[in-house]
Amino acid sequence: MQIQFCEFPDDVYYDMQNDVWLRPLSDNVVVIGITALLSNLAGRFKEIHFKQGLFSDVKSGQLLATAESSKYFGAIRSPLACKILDLNFEVEQNPRLANDSLYSKGWIAKVKLDIDQLDSNFPRGNEAEERLKQRISELKIRCFKKLPDEELIAVGSECAATLVNLGDLLKSKSVGTVVHILSDDPFADVEMAKWAELTKNELVETRDEGNLHHLIVEKRAGQDVGSRQK
Q1: Relative to the CA of 9, which of 24, 125, 177, 230 has its CA 20 to 30 Å away?
Q2: Which residues partner with 87 through β-bridges?
Q3: d(CA 184, CA 40)
Q4: Nearest to 195 by CA among 157, 224, 165, 161
């Protein structure tokens, strides 16, 4: 299920208060992870640290882990009372997983709890659609096809200057870096497409909101360009 460009699988329950999901496995075992809401609100995670140990008994609302990005520091909380069976220590070593693979490899914890509590406490799949829409609106969240690593605000700048700034930014970044450019140049999407073709980088997505243009680009090559192609 996709809501305003944010992905929400149909096979999980959603805890709106804590922005986490729960996926039943078997024998009262449930996987817990964070939703696209928290991932996009926080941006690229730099650190995730567990605050509970294996086989700990955890109360409803108790801290499982903390998550930190360049613009966010917050808690990942347990939706229900449970016992921790496993923790995904890989996300401590590679916090990007919690952004890029949040419904699979980026899971946070596996816990033991009464699965019957899920239906009585949380909506699942399409049942959660309206509440997820409300949550997106409340948090003013904007999801893209790829989560940006960097932001480049180019409102009031001509596209030629924006391309120079983008080239300078990407020089020090590794292949795979994703940049969100916000521009009000009416030719931004056309010029960015030319730039991507010339430099062998990728224009992942373009989206208009009124007179503003959102452009998502990914560095796919070692070279870049800082001027408008004539």
Answers
A1: 177
A2: 109
A3: 23
A4: 224
pLDDT tens digits, one per residue of 117-126? 999 999 998 9
Beta pairing partners, 69? 45
The residue type of 104 is S
- The answer to whether residues 125 and 161 belong to one domain is no
CATH of the domain at 85: 2.40.50.100
Instruction: Please work out, in degrees rounded to the nearest 5, the angle formed at the alpha carbon of residue 1 by the alpha carbons of 60 and 125.
Output: 40
| Alpha-helical runs (H) found in 67-209 | 90-93, 97-100, 116-121, 129-139, 159-171, 188-199
Q: For the chain, what's the residue count?
A: 230
User: Can you give the pTM of this predicted structure?
Assistant: 0.84
54-100 per-position pLDDT tens digit? 999 999 999 999 999 999 999 999 999 999 999 999 999 999 999 99
* Tokens found for residue 166: 């983008």
The number of distinct structural domains making up the chain is 2
Categorise residue 89: left if φ over 0, alpha if ψ from -120 to 50, beta otherwise.
Answer: alpha
User: CA–CA separation, 34 vs 19, rounded Å?
Assistant: 6
Same domain flag for 213 and 108 = no
79 in a structural domain: yes
The one-character DSSP state at 125 is: G
